[in-house]
Design brief:
The protein has 18 helices and no strands. The longest helix is centred in the first third of the chain and has 44 residues.
Length: 393
């Protein structure tokens, strides 16, 4: 805190920063990587509100701590010059616009989801979403583990082992295990960078090792929603799409709140709205328990990343250099990305139901590969039109 207090006076006011994040949350399409890029362009390059060093520290913290990447970076940037109040207001300003949008979409979905027109739209959209998630899985694999080159795979063989194990377990069990993620993180840390306290512990005695439905909700269901989404926010690292396998395992398999098609539609809703992709939890919460469910799901998901960010921010420079923490995050990330790939396989088998939907999914992957400037919302809009045309024939 003292370091922040002695830093130069910011050239912007807190209302200026809040206004910026309201705009970014309202118009910021493209997912976490695009949102992080917008922040650098606007706040570092154009406005000069942050130094390059402050931005990089925030990005590093967002990558190390669990939760949605873009939201964490926004919370950290709010914290840099305006402390806890800045972190809170920027976080809320960033999330609230897209939260309102997904609640409105949830109301429309419950009212009109059974109509042929809506079903035709989501027929095309669902197939495109599978393709988009598959492409994101590939990018996350290359970024988080290594390139698909023999030398790189050899040097990161343990992370690849975690990755493959997570794929296999996810496909077989059709659910994602938090304990698997944690075990991979701990094992990789112990092998690659065991903490100093553990080295001392080794010589210690062995004995110390231990409808529109806006207001409709059920109290027990709200408790289940709160606990489940709190775990989702606390155990998922990196891209917003990394939360998909965890959500699928609980929302579809464990609790049966949504079926497979509704879940794919929920992911699609997150992609056609601006702001963090993780805001899909608000849509899911609304379908399960109305407005109360949406609020509880969103609050529970974003609370861990908020707490981690404001707790670590003051002393982050020391934490960032800790090799044990870095190794722990690398191990967890490998398993999470593997689970995402496994989840794509599971959802794909249920959502890709015929040749046209297969072609839409493949075309989405090819578009993302070869049309560099295309953004997911445009791709999903095109898929919706194609779905309408196919069902009209």
């Amino acid at each position: 805190m003292e370091e922040r207090a002695s830093s130069p006076k910011p050239v912007y006011s807190l209302p200026d920063l809040v206004k910026y994040y309201l705009k970014l949350g309202t118009w910021g399409f493209g997912g976490p990587v695009a949102l992080v890029g917008y922040m650098h362009r606007d706040l570092v390059e154009n406005k000069g509100w942050l130094t390059e060093e402050e931005y990089k520290e925030g990005l590093a913290l967002a990558q190390l701590a669990p939760g949605p990447l873009a939201a964490q970076l926004g919370i950290y940037i709010g914290f840099v010059h305006y402390g806890l109040i800045g972190a809170t207001l920027t976080g809320l300003a960033f999330v609230i616009p897209s939260f309102i949008m997904v609640v409105l979409l949830g109301m429309a979905y419950q009212l009109y989801g059974g109509l042929p027109g809506m079903q035709a739209v989501f027929y095309g959209v669902g197939a495109a979403v599978i393709g988009i998630i598959a492409m994101s899985s590939y990018k996350l694999t290359v970024k988080s583990i290594s390139k698909f080159e023999l030398s790189a795979i050899r040097s990161k063989w343990l992370l690849w082992l975690f990755y493959i194990a997570a794929i296999v377990i996810t496909v077989i069990t059709e659910r994602e295990e938090v304990f698997l993620f944690s075990a991979c993180g701990i094992l990789y840390m112990l092998i690659k960078a065991p903490p100093q306290w553990l080295k001392k512990l080794v010589v210690a005695p062995a004995g110390i090792l231990l409808s529109a439905g806006f207001w409709h909700y059920d109290g027990k269901t709200l408790q289940e929603i709160a606990w489940f989404f709190l775990k989702a926010g606390a155990f998922v690292f990196g891209s917003g799409l990394a939360i998909v396998p965890f959500l699928h395992g609980g929302v579809v398999k464990e609790f049966g709140w949504l079926n497979e098609h509704q879940f794919v539609d929920a992911v699609a809703v997150a992609m056609i709205t601006p702001g963090p992709v993780v805001i899909t939890v608000g849509f899911i919460g609304y379908l399960v328990a109305g407005f109360s469910g949406a609020c509880v799901a969103a609050l529970a998901t974003f609370l861990p990343c908020y707490l981690f960010t404001v707790a670590l921010a003051p002393s982050f420079k020391k934490v960032a250099k800790n090799s044990s923490i870095k190794a722990f995050v690398e191990g967890i990330t490998a398993a999470v990305v593997g689970a995402l790939v496994g989840s794509v396989i599971v959802i794909g088998f249920r959502s890709i139901i015929d040749i046209p939907s297969s072609l839409i999914a493949v075309a989405s992957v090819l578009a993302l590969l070869f049309i560099k400037k295309i953004q997911e919302p445009y791709l999903i809009g095109l898929a919706a039109i194609i779905g309408l045309l196919i069902k009209a024939i």
